[in-house]
Design a protein that fits this description.
The protein is of the alpha+beta class. Among the domains are: 1-38 and 110-159, no CATH class; 249-334, Orthogonal Bundle (Transferase Creatine Kinase, Chain A, domain 1); 358-600, Creatine Kinase, Chain A, domain 2 (2-Layer Sandwich). Helices cover 35% and strands 10% of the residues. The protein is elongated, with a radius of gyration of 54 Å.
Length: 601
């Protein structure tokens, strides 16, 4: 009986103590309520909803129903409650299961509730609070209730999204890149703010300007697209630059074969003299940027014609720069020392009245001629011209010359449709260039013949213009006898009139640009057809004397022809490094001395 009474007393005492422990004024509950919020390793279910629960903090549904009744939460607590400790369900035995406190966090906090191990003997106090003294001050600190932030129970059924370290640190009362921040993360940078907003409920996320986002997206896509296009262009340009230094295998084969034959020949050309193995190897893979002209285009005439005096042509104006290692020494040799560092002087026709008649008695000079070559600006040289360009240039030349007046007035005759008899008569009169020049043909200067070719002459046939023979234009003033002064004056007038209508191609260093390097600079060639039988009896002697005065001796019909009846074509050789007036004066002085020498023999 005593044992039964004692058991009943013990159970009743335990019930009283439990009621005291979980009552509204219990010290343990107050200690738990005032405990700082600590992230629990595993979210605990909240107690069942009660009528007096806080309106801003709806409790989450517990994962399991509680076996024992739970005391209602304090109605006047202004601060958010931490994760509530889940009481264990009552055991079938009279002694209830003690409450297990959560594992304390590393941060300083009140000690967790200690639970004694259940034993058959009744324990006077099953739960011991870490601090027996109640802490009422924290409960009534806030004068007015504040909206509670997200509480731990709400996260029980959904794990939070992990945040980057930068965001976690900046959302505490610290600094972010030197900028003060608060608990709400008001000064977060743009990227971290977006990540932080992703963890908030929709009602807490700041409004985003969709148009700004759209513009930012479009800018990003546009930037990426432009970068991609630029990379493609750079790759194409790199390929083009590589292609600029690549020559077709067939062209290389022809170059190697032609070079070997030239080296083994007895050619006296300037091409053979200066096209060394080193220069050849350095230039054979190069091409001009615009028209892709190769070394073969430059030297093929000299490779096919070992009897050439020079042997090279410029297929386009850029060839003078790309293949300068070959052109420069040939130019220096032919033009009497015009070095690659020299610069051709400005155009100057001088005093046209200073020249007189070199042979007043007409005993030696049969005829006199002064001509110059010109290239039309904007067009390549003959090898690179298309048939359409030939015809276009012919039309421009014809319309330009039709506007000349006075002694220059005349008519343009296109080769296309010209009768053979008329053509041959003009050739015999030394007015018209002839078809089939093997040196020009080898240089690809006779393509689409006779398209785009023609001749203009005045009524007296003392002024002529050749269109697209060797150069785009050959402007010629000529007449019988040795009156060089009158002939030179007529040429000067014609060149100035034509240049007003047609712009010419000119280079600051090389002067007026032409197809053949021998005609660069002034492009002036002043010549006479002269009969000097005593000097001609020894042609070597004639050439030796002429060279002293920088004169060149040719056959009656010009370059690559023989003298007919002892008549030679003698002209000034230098055209670079001196003015037009100086070039003509060299011829004037030289012819005067030859006539004196012929008279003395």
């Amino acid at each position: 009986m005593f044992a039964l009474w004692y058991l009943t007393f013990a159970v009743d005492e335990i019930r009283k103590r439990l009621a005291w422990l979980f009552g509204p004024k219990k010290p343990a509950q107050q200690a738990l309520d005032n405990k700082p919020a600590v992230a629990s390793p595993s979210p605990a279910p909240a107690p069942a909803p009660q009528p007096a629960a806080k309106p801003n903090t709806p409790p989450a549904t517990p994962s399991k129903p509680a076996a024992a009744p739970v005391s209602p939460p304090k109605p006047s607590t202004p601060t958010p409650s931490p994760a509530v400790t889940k009481p264990a369900p009552a055991a079938p035995t009279p002694a209830p299961t003690p409450v297990v406190a959560p594992k304390p966090a590393p941060a300083p906090a009140p000690a967790p509730v200690q639970v004694p191990t259940p034993a058959p003997a009744p324990a006077p106090v099953p739960v011991v609070a870490p601090r027996p003294t109640p802490a009422p001050t924290p409960v009534v600190v806030a004068p007015t209730p504040a909206p509670a932030p997200v509480v731990a129970p709400k996260q029980a059924d959904k794990m939070p999204i992990p945040l980057p370290k930068a965001l976690t640190e900046s959302n505490t009362n610290g600094t972010n890149n030197g900028t003060a921040t608060n608990g709400n993360g008001n000064q977060l940078d743009a990227l971290d703010q977006k990540l932080f907003d992703a963890t908030l409920p929709p009602s807490k996320v700041a409004k985003i300007d969709k148009e700004q986002l759209k513009d930012a997206s479009n800018d990003f896509i546009k930037g990426e697209a432009q970068a991609f296009v630029q990379s493609i262009k750079e790759a194409q340009q790199a390929g083009e630059r590589k292609q600029d230094t690549m020559v077709d295998a067939a062209v290389l084969a022809k170059l190697e074969e032609g070079f070997a034959k030239l080296a083994a020949s007895d050619s006296k050309s300037l091409l053979k003299k200066y096209l060394t193995k080193e220069v050849f190897d350095n230039l054979k893979n190069k091409v001009t940027p615009t028209f892709k002209s190769t070394l073969l285009d430059v030297i093929q005439s000299g490779l096919e014609n070992h009897d050439s005096g020079v042997g090279i042509y410029a297929p386009d104006a850029e060839a003078y720069t790309v293949f300068a290692d070959l052109f420069d020494p040939i130019i220096e040799d032919y033009h009497g020392g015009f070095k690659k560092t020299d610069k051709h002087p400005a155009s100057d026709f001088g005093d046209v009245s200073s020249f007189g008649n070199v042979d007043p008695t007409n005993e030696y000079v049969i005829s006199t001629r002064v001509r110059c070559g010109r290239s039309m600006q904007g067009y390549p040289f003959n090898p690179c011209l298309t048939e359409a360009q030939y015809k276009e240039m012919e039309s421009k030349v014809s319309s330009t010359l039709s506007g000349l007046e006075g002694e220059l007035k005349g008519k343009f005759y296109p080769l296309t449709g010209m009768e053979k008899a008329v053509q041959q008569q003009l050739i015999d009169d030394h007015f018209l260039f002839k078809e089939g020049d093997r040196f020009l043909q080898a240089a690809n200067a006779c393509r689409y013949w006779p398209s785009g070719r023609g001749i203009y002459h005045n009524d007296n046939k003392t002024f002529l213009v050749w269109c697209n023979e060797e150069d785009h234009l050959r402007i010629i003033s000529m007449q019988q006898g040795g009156d060089l002064g009158e002939i030179y004056r007529r040429l000067t007038t014609a060149v100035n009139e034509i240049e007003k209508r047609v712009p010419f191609s000119h280079d600051d260093r090389l002067g007026f640009l032409t197809f053949c390097p021998t005609n660069l600079g002034t492009t002036i060639r002043a010549s006479v057809h002269i009969k000097v039988p005593k000097l001609a009896s020894n042609k070597a002697k004639l050439e030796e004397v002429a060279a002293k005065y920088n004169l060149q001796v040719r056959g009656t019909r010009g370059e690559h022809t023989e003298a007919e009846g002892g008549v030679y074509d003698i002209s000034n050789k230098r055209r670079m490094g001196l003015t037009e007036y100086q070039a003509v004066k060299e011829m004037y002085d030289g012819i005067t001395e030859l006539i004196k020498l012929e008279k003395s023999l």
